[in-house]
Amino acid sequence: MTALTDVPLNVLDLAWRGYGQSNADAVRGSIELAQHAESLGYGRYWFAEHHGMPGIASSSPAVLIGAVAAATEKLRVGSGGVMLPNHAPLVVAEQFGTLHALYGDRIDLGIGRAPGTDGVTALALRRTPEGLDASGFPQELQDLIGFFHGNMSPNNPMSQLLAVPGLGDAPEIWLLGSSGFSAQLAGLLGLPFAFAHHFSGDNTEAALQLYRESFQASDFLSAPHSMLAVSVIADASPEAVRREMLPGSLSFLRLRRGLKPEPVSVDEALAYEYSPLELDFISHRNSRQAIGSPDEVRAQLESLLESTGVDELMLQPSGASAEGRRHSLEVVRDLARGAI
């Protein structure tokens, strides 16, 4: 079993825009949180691509990666992930090739198969219905890898193209997923795999097992290498945990009803009358995340490490306030160092 004291710790950021904040506040807060994470000893700092969601300002991971890489010194910065169905592989290769040219081996490229948004927005991003169902994802992923490494088949029409920057400026490539499809594809291609447990926690162990069973050694890896993304809200005060947790929970409930709500205030979230069904949904969604007191968070993370056997953890601080997100990272850092 991998102990919490031994596993590398990383951060997943959605550039949260809190109640009453501007987009400028959100992205500035992400840069400040990344600097704080670096000072605490975290290894990677990734941005997730989302579109059209008022409370999330991470629609352009490549731009945020450049800003954070410029504001830090050693932190690995990357995407968690870029949703490839939204983009031409050549564009992604040029963007991340440029980032690698600027910041060297500090850049990670995590790739996802889902569009990360609704169908209309996905169509606006792609500008054509072709590819929206992600059926071409395996080929597009291999095209993207080829733009970086130059190993495309001569029968592939993309082999005639040159990514500049891109070829010779390859970031560390990860495949992300919340299903067996992505897990198996990552294994077959010999790529590291990150599982999105923070929003899809019911299939975690099965998907990771499929990844390991499917794994074939490659130029990237000789053995499987996996990471787990987990939501974290940690505080010694139960009331503080509740205040940090409920605004995001209420926003997610509204999102599940097809709404795209503005950020929820703490007061609104505390005053809202949750139905028994809503409370059950929130409880189930949080049951295998790292939410609670330091002792509870330690137990939750160690349980996940035991059941999944992952090599790295990626914490998604999901508290309502910047202070709460900073504190959660501090608590887990202290737990990992055996300080509490």
Show the helix and strand layout.
Elements: E1 9-13, H1 23-40, E2 44-47, H2 61-71, E3 76-83, H3 89-103, E4 107-112, H4 119-126, H5 137-149, E5 172-177, H6 180-189, E6 193-195, H7 204-214, E7 226-234, H8 238-256, H9 266-271, H10 276-286, E8 290-292, H11 294-308, E9 312-317, H12 322-336
Helix pairs in contact: 1-2, 1-12, 2-3, 3-5, 6-7
Folded structure, characterized:
By secondary structure, this protein is α/β, with parallel strands linked by helices. It has one domain: Luciferase-like domain (TIM Barrel, Alpha-Beta Barrel). It is built from twelve helices and nine strands. The chain has an eight-stranded parallel β-barrel, surrounded by eight helices. α6 links the parallel β5 and β6. α1 packs across α2 (about 60-70) and α3 runs parallel beside α5 (about 135-150). The relative contact order is 0.15. The model has no long low-confidence stretch (mean pLDDT about 95).
Task: Summarize, please.
Residues 22-312 form the Luciferase-like domain. The protein is 45% helix and 15% strand. The chain is α/β, with parallel strands linked by helices.
List keywords for this structure.
single chain; 340 residues; alpha/beta
| Amount of helix | 40-55%
SSE pattern, N- to C-terminal = EHEHEHEHHEHEHEHHHEHEH
The CATH architecture would be Alpha-Beta Barrel
β-strand amount: 5-15%
CATH class: Alpha Beta
List the domain count as a whole number: 1
Structural class: alpha/beta
Radius of gyration (Å): 19 Å
Count the beta strands: 9
Termini separation (Å)? 20 Å
Find the CATH superfamily. Luciferase-like domain
CATH topology title: TIM Barrel
Shape type: globular
Largest sheet: 8 strands, parallel, barrel
Low-confidence stretches: none
> What is the count of DSSP helices, taking H or I runs of 4+ residues?
12
